[in-house]
Amino acid sequence: MIDLDFYMKLPRNGREFSLFVFIVSLLSVNIIAPLITCFETGFSLETWKNTFGIIPFMWVVVVLLVLLTNKPASKVTSILISDDDSFSAHMIVNCLINVMMMSIVLSVVGVWIGTKTISWLPIEHFFYKWPRNFTISFLVEACIAQPFARLILLKKHQIEAQS
Q: Are 37 and 114 in contact (CB under 8 A)?
């Protein structure tokens, strides 16, 4: 049954991987960036609207980071999780490692993109801000973005299997 989950819910080729990354990154950027910004500057409709101006730039960085962290995260996951462990265990550990690597970079670079200024401020405040950023990112990835992308792939694979 585990093999079926891997086969049905994960990308099988480069095109499906691109679709998966597109869905996950689009959802993540549109949820995580506004949430973190609102926690930084206060929850208001104005803050939320202002965040959408930086989302295209943030999205490009997120996609690049996904491509850079995917293989290392998979390797670390394979060290921590055995082939006998469940699909869910593989997904949660892989998500945890990916989000950890990405949130470290984005806790600095995201501030630079958001403020349109390169400064030492996000580095100086890193250990205060990163735990919150990581938690928000991990929850969005584990509970919304990745499950939704896997559901889309599952439905796509089910439709293909019927035809």
A: yes
